Amino acid sequence: MDDSRRIVAADDVPEDGTLLFTVSEGGDRTEAILTRLDDGAIVAFSNYCPHWTDVRLDKGAGALVRNGELVCQKHGATFERDSGVCDFGPCEGAVLETIDVTVEDGSVLLTDDDYAFENLGAAQEYDRSSGNQIGF
Fold it and tell me: The Rieske domain covers which part of the protein (predicted)?
């Protein structure tokens, strides 16, 4: 097993949610999510809604999963967890970018040669405030 490709222990991927991690491609960092399917398989997708690519599905506490589908909380779009296909919402028919992973010896490994694993969690610190500029 190549430790530089290890993302996390497979048991740490939630059964009804996602786990956020960061990868890099040619110096550019991007976020991805791991999710566990009903059959126990683990898949990874880019952490961005295809409708507006600045909208993150997992903001750090796990993406919303409803009726077995990933949900974009900004638009209400739903994505099949096995394929990443949007089956409802403004980006219906679009597909989340797949990032290749495999499970080996109890660990989730990044097998997508386009990316290098950087860290668990977000690619950067985000301001969790509402962003309102109202002064009192």
Answer: 5-110
- Residue 12 and residue 15: Cα distance in Å, rounded? 9
Tens digits of per-residue pLDDT, 104-135? 999 999 999 999 999 999 998 765 544 434 34
Count of other CB atoms within 10 angstroms of residue 70: 24
Dist CA 35 CA 71 (whole Å): 13
Tell me the per-residue pLDDT of 35-91, one tens digit each, with 9 for 90 and over: 999 999 999 999 999 988 889 999 999 999 999 999 999 989 999 999 999 999 999
Please, which residues bridge with residue 42 across strands? 36
Distance, in Å, from the CA atom of 35 to the CA atom of 41, rounded to the nearest integer, reads 8
Task: Spell out a b/e string for 99-119, using b for 16 or more CB atoms within 10 Å of the CB, else e.
Answer: bebeeeeebbbbebeebbbbe
Task: Return d(Cα 6, Cα 104) in angstroms, integer.
Answer: 9
Collect contacts of 86-90 with beta carbons under 8 A, ≥24 apart. 86/50, 89/51, 90/51
Task: Give the pair of three-digit tokens for residue 91.
Answer: 């980006």
